[in-house]
Amino acid sequence: MVIFCGCCGLKKIVIIGLIFSIGIISAVFGAYVYELLIPGTVIVLNTPTGEYEVQAFEDSTCTIPLTSVDWGELQPGEIKQIDFYLKNTGNVTISSVTVEVVSDVQYSGGHGYGTLEPQQSMKAAATLKISPTAVSGQYSAEIKVTCTA
User: Among 89, 106, 122, 126, which residue's CB has the most CB atoms within a 10 Å radius?
Assistant: First the structure.
């Protein structure tokens, strides 16, 4: 359909033509979808019953709970390690333990440990690595302990 409206009639025809062309191109591109399905299986195991609990301590006899850590003052690029102890106070064997530091100024780190039997303890370490490009300021640096049974 051609619409003539004085001096701007030609512009309306061009705009209508472009919209129509874009609609056709979109429809053609949107029609080509390719999917590949790869079959597989998974086995879901029941969670072992029992009490899961791991606690952190400052001392090797596991009598002083570790409730917070003061990392002190560090420079960009500096590394500091805090040693502490983990004790399985539950009644289920822990198959793996991972310790990492979660912070806005950290650029890597983390330690993995093996099995921790009920009432057993182990020495662990948390390493804070300050990014070389860190800006001065006060930041949180939490120790995250992840346990898998």
Answer: 126
Query: CB within 8 A of 62, min separation 6: which ones?
Result: 55, 85, 87, 121
Tokens of 128: 């804070």
pTM above 0.85, yes or no: no
By CB atoms closer than 10 A (0-12, 13-18, 19+), residue 20 is: exposed
Span 72-94, pLDDT tens digits? 999 999 999 999 999 999 999 99
Strand partners, 80: 128
> Mean pLDDT across the chain, nearest whole number?
81
Overall fold of domain 54-148: Immunoglobulin-like (2.60.40)
Domain locations along the chain:
54-148
91-120 burial, b for 16+ CB within 10 Å, e for fewer? ebebeebebbbebebbeebeeebeebeeee
